[in-house]
Please model this.
Amino acid sequence: MKLNIKPLFATLLGMSLLTPAAVQAEEMTINIKQLKMHTALKIAEATIEQCRQEGVQIAVTVVDRGGNIQAVLRDDLAMDITIPISKQKAHTAMAFNSPLSQMEGRFEGAYSVPKIDGLVISAGGIPINVGGSIMGGIGVSGAPSGEIDEKCAEAGLAAVEMDLQMEGM
Model:
């Protein structure tokens, strides 16, 4: 009886490619894009400008994907309390990857998620989402309504959105 070695060799070769060494050859890090400080500042400035056109003085905070502050601006006459509120709105919008106006009323009950310190479920915060990747959040506080806060945040994002989309391609 003659043994055909070629199929046996091919099978053994194929199995050797499935060893842990082949699995370890995969990348072991993740490349994460992050907003540059200049981009965060441009968002904040455009947000302030939109709110000035609305006739209101606000604070705006831009956070990165980890919730870390990248830019904070408070207009001349905005109350000091607007700074921490804008930060919390930016962080919450980033964490949930959702405009806060879409989250109002979503959580009910004494032990719901918004009871966690630092989260604010109130219109005026939007995520910075580029090509399906969360890049950060924008939070605005100081306008007479959350809708105006959010309109200003949207204008801030619009100031850089096209450039971010083009860079993501």
Q: What stands out?
A: The mean pLDDT is 84. The first strand starts at residue 59 and ends at 64. DSSP finds five helices and four strands in the chain. The two ends are 61 Å apart (CA to CA).
